[in-house]
Amino acid sequence: MISYDRLYIGGAWTEPTEPALVEILSPHDRSLIGVAAQAQPADIDRAVAAAHASFESRVWRDTAPAARIALLRGFNALRAEQADRIAELITAENGSAAWFTRAGQAGLTRQANAYLVAAENFDWERTLTPSDPDAKVRSVVRREPVGVVAAVIPWNSPFSAATAKILPALLTGNSVVLKASPENSLSMGLLAELIDRIGLPDGVISIVPAERETSEYLISHPLVDKIAFTGSTGAGRRIAAIAGEQLKRVSLELGGKSAAVILPDADLTAVLHGLKFGALLNNGESCIAQTRILAPRSRYAEVVAALAALVESLPVGDPRDPHTFIGPMVRGDQQQRVRDYIELGIAEGARLVCGGSHLPPGLRDGFYVTPTVFADVTPDMRIAREEIFGPVLVVLGYDDIDDAVRIANDSDYGLSGGVWSADEAAAIAVARRIRTGTVTINGAPVGFDGPFGGFKASGIGREYGVVGLGQYTEYQTITV
């Protein structure tokens, strides 16, 4: 059994305000994985005070960018060394299939490397060329760190969400309090161990798990200058309201209901291979999952039958088994939420092609859901509009390209999406018309050099690369 009975606050392992430990149970069979301390408001006060003191002392923000980069490159190497341990912990905590957590380790390396390269080439300071040649002044534009960053992340992909925030925040000289979900107390404890080994100055970072009420206490704290949040759109709206009231800087990466647009000439074998991962990665508990499948009416029956055959072929079970493709939902309430949506789809009149709200055979001890495909879905149905966050796919038909674009854009969300076609230029032309932050063509992986984030209710701001670094800076202009 794993135990983290102390909290990592300001660069030191500290006794928590509340000594009672929370049990972390396996979503697969509800067995005990470990125990961990949880932060309370008094612990948040200590963490924020340490971050504020370190920022005011300038000990980290005045460190040369090259030195900050070198330190965080060392962290990236340490994390890569622990890749297997990280993957195993997230599989145990979340129920994420082992194939997904192991494959994600290479993604973490690419994500970090993209931030490091962006920092090496970042425009930290420059002198502007006057627009008026007779001007007797010159302007120096500088990038300054924002200050104390409250980074709040969800449970579904904890290491990726954590490093997407702490790396750019630290590279740009900020101090950070990272608040993780209770479900990820063990993997985030390991993250704290790795951070502790790289030698950041005292106070610069705290990593603590806590419940939602403590999250609100953190983001409302008067000494927090910026909020960086990944999570549900509902929670994002609440955070945006607090940030607006207090004039804090804020970036929000929120929910999605992404469309996969299959053009009439698409290679269906390639589409199925891509959607196996693009629609059902991480048990469907992914904000970028392409769960709205848009198929031309001329091939609608063919697409529905092929998707159903794919989904029914995917092994469901123990996430530690390398042959398992889909594991359990993270918690019992999430399991029930997904099953309720399946019942809702049936009640709305959608055709249940495969799956359903029944539990998979032999898996009644865990939080499992039977992977499901709905056909004859219309854009007004709730299963086509709301984020289910589970292995449930809905197939909508379209008449022509204009109709496909209209349906794809008929959503409150705009985080991700995909277009499939034998004609790359035609696919890109359709992608340009879809109002969403990221569009992949023929299953291309999402890169880490370009900005990532959402339109509409999918968020505010962007992560990754140079643009992601800029989210943690303020401009200062010095005129001479």
Into how many domains do the coordinates divide?
Answer: 2
Structural class: alpha/beta
Number of strands: 21
- The CATH topology of the largest domain is what? Aldehyde Dehydrogenase, Chain A, domain 1
Mean pLDDT: 97
Strand order of the largest sheet: 15-16-17-14-13-18-19
Low-confidence stretches: none
The percent range for helix content is 25-40%
**CATH class category name of the largest domain:** Alpha Beta
Named CATH architecture of the largest domain: 3-Layer(aba) Sandwich
Strand content: 15-25%
The biggest sheet, with number of strands, parallel, antiparallel or mixed sense and barrel status, is: 7 strands, mixed
Distance between the termini: 62 Å
By DSSP (H or I, 4+ residues per run), the number of helices equals: 15
Overall geometry: globular
Could you list some keywords that capture this structure?
six-stranded mixed β-sheet; 21 strands; 480 residues; seven-stranded mixed β-sheet; alpha/beta; Aldehyde Dehydrogenase, Chain A, domain 2; 15 helices
Structure write-up:
The protein folds into two domains: 2-254 and 457-479, 3-Layer(aba) Sandwich (Aldehyde Dehydrogenase, Chain A, domain 1), CATH 3.40.605; 259-447, 3-Layer(aba) Sandwich (Aldehyde Dehydrogenase, Chain A, domain 2). Helix content is 39%, strand content 20%. The protein has 15 helices and 21 strands. The strands form five sheets. The protein has a seven-stranded mixed beta sheet with strand order 15-16-17-14-13-18-19, with helices on both faces. It has a six-stranded mixed beta sheet with strand order 10-9-8-11-12-20, sandwiched between helices. Helix 2 (65-81) packs antiparallel against helix 4 (98-120) and helix 3 (83-94) packs across helix 4 (98-120). 52% of the residues are buried.
